[in-house]
Structure formats: C-alpha cells, structure tokens
Amino acid sequence: MATTPARLDPADLLAVGDLLTDEERLIRDTVRRFADERIRPEIGDWFERGVFPVRELAPELGRLGVLGMHLDGYGCTGSTATAYGVACMELEAADSGLRSFVSVQGSLAMRSIHAFGSEEQKQQWLPDLAAGRAIGCFALTEPDFGSDPANMRTRARRKGEDWVLGGSKMWITNGSVSDVAVVWAQTEEGVRGFLVPRDTPGFTANDVHGKLSLRASVTSELVLDEVLLPADAMLPGVRGLKGPLSSLNEARYGILWGTVGAARDCYTTALDYARTRIQFERPIAGFQLTQQKLVEMMLEVEKAYLVAVRIGRLKDEGRSLPAHISFGKLNNVRTALEIARSARTILGANGITTEYPVLRHANNLESVLTYEGTSEIHTLVLGEAITGESAYR
Fold it and tell me: Which of 15, 64, 204, 346 is 20 to 30 A from 172 (CA-CA)?
C-alpha cells in the first residue's frame, strides 16, 4: 500500500522534534507561545532602550513554571533535563537576555541553594524564587578573575560566630534587582558560598551601562564593603570550587540548548525574508548563492539540535560529564553566532534594525560565546578529555 510522503518542515528538516516526548513537546509549545505573545512584541524596544522589566516578568515566568523547573520540591516542577533544555531553546529564540534571566535564577542561584543550602535556607528562599516573587543572582566572576576563579580576591573572615565579607564581583546578571545574592568567597577553609540579602549593610550593586550586547538584561557590579553576615548565611553543603563550578555546569547546559533557539530564529527569519524579498523580478530565495547560505544554516541548526538532544538524554540518564557540556556549549554557541552573521547578509540593510531579530541575536551571542566559560576554556576541557593532558598552565 502506498504511503503518503512525510511533509518536510523547513524549520526542522530532520524532524528532530520527534525525538522529544509528548511532555517535552508540550513544554516546547507552551514556552514558545509565551515567548511569541509576551516577549517578541516588546523585545526590540527593550533591547534598544537597554531595559528588561524583571519585576514584571519574573512572576509571569514563575507561573509558566520555568524558574528552577529542573529542581525537585520547594515549588519547583522537577522536570527532566531535556524538558528544561527545550524551555531554554524557546526562551532564547526570543532573546538571550530572557534565557539568561531564567538560567541565572534557576541553574545558578536556586540550584546552589537547592544543592548546598540548609533546609532552613531552602525553605526561606526557594519557593519565592520559583514563583518569581523573589529574584536571585550568582556572584563568582570578579573584575580581574573570570576564567581563573581560584584566585578570586573576595574574602570572608570569621568574626566570632559571624562572617565578614569584602571584595567585588563583576558581570553579575540580575545583580541590582536581586533579593538575594549567592556570593562565593575565599575563606581559611577554602571557597565557600554565602547568601547575601539585598538590604544587608555594606552590600551595593551598580548596573553596567553602555552594553552593545545583552542589552535586554540587567548586568551589575557587586561591592561588598565589610558585609556582616550571621553564621547561618553560609551554604553548609559544599567547600571549594566544586560548588560554584557544578552550578555553572548546569547553566552551561541551558546555554547549549538556548543557542539552538537563537540559531533557529535567525535561520527562519532569513528564510521567510528570502521568500518575499524581490530582486531582479523574483524572490532572492530563488538565487543559488542565497540557497547555499540557507542550506548551510539549516544543516548547522539541525546538527546543533541533535547535539542538544543527545546531551540532554545523557544528563537524564545520569551519564553526562563536564566534557559533554563543554562540547555542547563550544559547538552550539559558535554555530549560532555564524548562523546569525550569515542570516544578516540575506536581510541586507534591513538586518541591522530591531525590526528583525538577527543582529540582536548576533550581538547577544557575542556575550554568550564568552560567559560561563570562554571558547578557549571549553577547548582545553575537551583537549584534556581526549588526550589526558591538562593544558591550563
């Protein structure tokens, strides 16, 4: 009996989405609808003005269920890693700043409290963070120490039963709007994490201005000037860099998915534009050079999508390693950035305006390329994984 040929979807030619479960596809479609209806009509204006309405959006994202969605209990939905990745893909298809907010809230701030906090700390903060009633940030990077956090200068010293923190942190997403900062500092017993409420005396946050990337995102410098904290402000469950680095790995996982969304958005925007842009009395989609660009973009989007699904499944099976995450971030961010640049050439002059998302994605991806592990660092992680030799020093 003859079968009807499958219809090809130009946005997903290999039907990679069929590899997702019904629940994962439902999450994909729900988050995509939210992004399309709530974010896309506004994001160009937010990016141009350099604003992001965090307090307005956080409760909406909480009701959507994406804040800390891969964590269990305390108001979190306990989804699979792949489902969380799919949500990140749809969030970043709208804008990297939106995915960054969700990622920092859930994979960095909430995950650190969930994994390393006391029961009292979890009960105090996680339900409000999951609902978007509170906002968190994660403070590891310093002005002079990004890829080398082991040499951070922020210090915490004992004062009786209390702690006193001093130092500064830089490039902190959500910093000035956070109700609680997860601050990592050197102590006599190694690196420890501390929960610093926003109204703590000596704690200030100053926004970074003049950004050409991630403009629809709050980025801050944190200053800790003899900040006095009670003993129970310290996260008791971890000591050393394995704490912050394990949370960073969770955030990097979201990035390897998110950038697939940004890449897909650039590709489909260029495809739609090429079909309707008339030059020499026909759509530019009919020219060989344009088709070559579109095909190359489509190939790379699908390969990045397959990489994300595979790493998601490994993570759900408890078999993912840091090298897998580095593989995904290195490949997918680099791929997305090249797709954005190629898509811009198809849009011509129209591609430089906020009417189209392509150059906004390209600018954002320049930050995504270097934050939470530069390409060089991930290259060295993978180099060590395949050779057994460390080349960091």
Answer: 64
